[in-house]
Automatic annotation (TrEMBL):
Ribosomal RNA large subunit methyltransferase K/L-like methyltransferase domain mapped to chain residues: 229-360
InterPro entries in the cross-refs: RlmKL-like_Mtase, SAM-dependent_MTases_sf
Superkingdom field: Eukaryota
Classification lineage: Eukaryota, Sar, Stramenopiles, Ochrophyta, Bolidophyceae
The protein's name: Ribosomal RNA large subunit methyltransferase K/L-like methyltransferase domain-containing protein
Any Gene Ontology CC annotation: tRNA methyltransferase complex
GO terms (BP aspect): tRNA methylation
GO molecular function annotations of the record: tRNA (guanine) methyltransferase activity
Length: 400
């Protein structure tokens, strides 16, 4: 069975692995190992959750049924005890040309797989076997951790030159390439594979591939404005954590570009109702299409135009990052948001909140803290995660 490496948010890799095991039978997919470290050293390390699987599932099905995965790589090798940059050379050399060629075959199979619409147009334009000329490749490194005696550039160069030694007929190219080899290095381990993500959807400047999903978000970046929503895979994980049931009403009170609602609608269709809103007028103009499909509107989450007890589940990504003004204002907003959501919450209502900088305030404001002004939400579970290199929390709450 071909082996793959799945990349996801750090802190949720074990959960994502369990979702893969739920989605595919053990005859078709086996989880071989999970790396899920989140600590101060993973700060800055995007995508530090890694899952090694072996599977016979075709890549199109794999992608479609694992929207919570940021990227799939065809596995080349995993180094467990890195000591110097020459370990990358040794690892690829001992892997040998036939194993690397097999991985390339899987990659090309990926391109020729019959992809369902509407994803197909997005994936066919790269990973094509070149009709003529050399195979073009690029090597990159996503590195985190302290005291490495090498830089990311050293790793990329070593990987690139080793591939050039093994395949003298290949040609390195930073812009036009069919094959992208990525090494995810964290402390003394390195996970190395060939990215299955489509080149057109890779951010050439960044090391982490962006996602090609459909709907792949409605990010808007112009000279005058930048509205970037959560990654679809992050939204998919939040939705999985919410464990939604048919007929439930779900609300994102600070929906931004509406990514959570869009992802939810994609997964559940008419089975679950999603609605959301944002106070930003510009956002409400930019997201017209999604707004119509997903019931997104202009509102202030501290005064929701919803009746008491309407919402079963809240999935919430509030504005408590570094860019949201004074701490006092942010805490006030958090308190009013929680109160208002509680008012509109059905009996047994629950909330999944993604929160970065205000976790202490959230604990102080909610049960089990006996604070006299605590809002009527109880923290059921906290998960520490690495969100694009930033340490954050996903907090599960229940209405009390
Ligand atoms: C972290 S962003 C949400 C991003 C969103 N999850 C996405 O993927 O696009 C937080 C959002 O809260 C909105 N917001 C801030 N104060 C608000 C309020 N009082 N009512 C509703 N939305 C508010 C901001 O405009 C911002 O779009």
């Amino acid at each position: 069975m071909p082996a793959y490496i799945a990349i996801c948010i750090g802190g949720l890799a074990t959960f994502a692995a369990s979702l893969l095991q739920r989605e595919f039978s053990s005859d078709d997919l086996q989880v071989l190992r999970v790396f899920d470290e989140v600590n101060d050293q993973t700060q800055g390390h995007a995508g530090c959750g890694k899952i090694e699987v072996s599977t016979t599932v075709d890549p199109a099905t794999l992608w479609l049924k694992s929207r919570f995965i940021m990227n799939w790589l065809v596995k080349l090798t995993i180094i467990d005890s890195l000591s110097s940059v020459s370990d990358f050379h040794s690892a690829l050399t001992s892997l040998g040309s036939s194993s690397i060629s097999s991985a390339v075959t899987v990659l090309r199979l990926h391109a020729s797989t019959s992809w369902p619409e509407p994803i197909r147009p997005m994936v066919t334009s790269s990973h094509q076997s070149p009709s003529s000329g050399p195979t073009l490749y690029r090597a990159s490194c996503v590195r985190s951790g302290t005291s490495h005696p090498f830089t990311s550039l050293d790793v990329s160069r070593t990987l690139g030159s080793t591939l050039g030694e093994i395949f003298p007929e290949w040609k390195a190219s930073m812009k036009e390439y069919e094959i992208r080899v990525i090494a995810y290095v964290l402390n003394s381990s390195a996970w190395i594979g060939m990215s299955l993500n489509n080149r057109d959807y890779q951010r050439n400047k960044g090391n982490l591939d962006s996602e090609f999903r459909y709907p792949h978000g409605i990010n808007v970046k112009t000279e005058t404005t930048s509205k970037i929503g959560l990654r679809p895979s992050t939204c998919a994980l939040l939705i999985e954590l919410a464990d939604l049931k048919s007929g439930e009403i779900v609300c994102d009170p600070t929906s931004g570009m509406g990514s959570i609602c869009i992802e939810g609608r994609y997964k559940f269709g008419d089975e679950v109702a999603f609605l959301g809103g944002d106070i930003d007028k510009e956002i409400n103009e930019l997201r017209m299409v999604a707004a119509v499909e997903c019931g997104l509107t202009l509102w202030d989450c501290t005064r929701l135009p919803l009746r008491d007890g309407l919402i079963d589940v809240w999935i919430c990504d509030p504005p408590f990052g570094v860019h949201c003004g004074k701490t006092k204002d942010a805490i006030t907003l958090l308190k009013h948001l929680l109160r208002e959501c509680r008012r509109c919450s059905a009996e047994g209502g629950r909330m999944i909140m993604l929160i970065a900088h205000r976790i202490k305030e959230l604990r102080r404001l909610t049960f089990p803290n006996e604070h006299v002004h605590a809002v009527r939400w109880r923290i059921v579970k906290e998960r520490k995660i690495n969100l694009g290199g930033m340490l954050a929390y996903i907090v599960e709450m229940a209405a009390v």
